[in-house]
Amino acid sequence: MSDIGKIKRIFFSMGLLLFASELWKQCTLTFILNDGIYDFWYFPFQLCSIPMYLLLVFPFLENNSHSKVIFTFLMDYSLLSGIFVFFDTSGMQYPIISLTMHSYVWHIILIIIGISSGIILYRFFKPNFASFWKATGLFIGCAIIAQCLNLSISQYAQINMFYISPFEPATQTFFSSIYRYLGFGIYMISYLCAIVLGAFLFHLLWKKFFYDKL
Predict the structure, then answer these.
(1) How many Cα atoms occupy the beta-carbon half-sphere of 71 within 13 Å?
(2) What is residue 186's predicted lDDT score, i.e. its pLDDT?
């Protein structure tokens, strides 16, 4: 088996670990905290949940260009989501300490995966801006799916995937003011564009301080 094949198997194993821990989290939330009623607020389709799904598809990617896009997504978008959540940890707090610990460990793993992906990209794929824009297309596709979930489930339960539901107020610092004064449409566009800009800056930092030095 090639080196990249072994790496994909390792990443797939990490995906299985994340999936198993997410399954435990969902069961704990449902049966211990919510009397057996599923709470869609915790449905695992936030930006920090996407890496779990991407890691699980690695064994089925025969095309290296597809692998390159996913590694780029993990390097930029997942690393961004893993780091910036620590600037506001309110969403990581739960009534049960094990759930809080799970949330912290999950995001630390995202950081490790993101950094590892950046190193792997240099070693095997030579990242470029074309792969970043393809990863951005993947992000936009996930945001569209998230909004479809928001629109379809909100009539039955409270849900706010990617924090862009038109039925839930914005709570993020700065963006809540945009929501309040300029409305949902401007808020959603500015929020998603800010994520893309943040990921792009991460991509530039990788290029400036890592790839250009090797």
Answers:
(1) 27
(2) 97
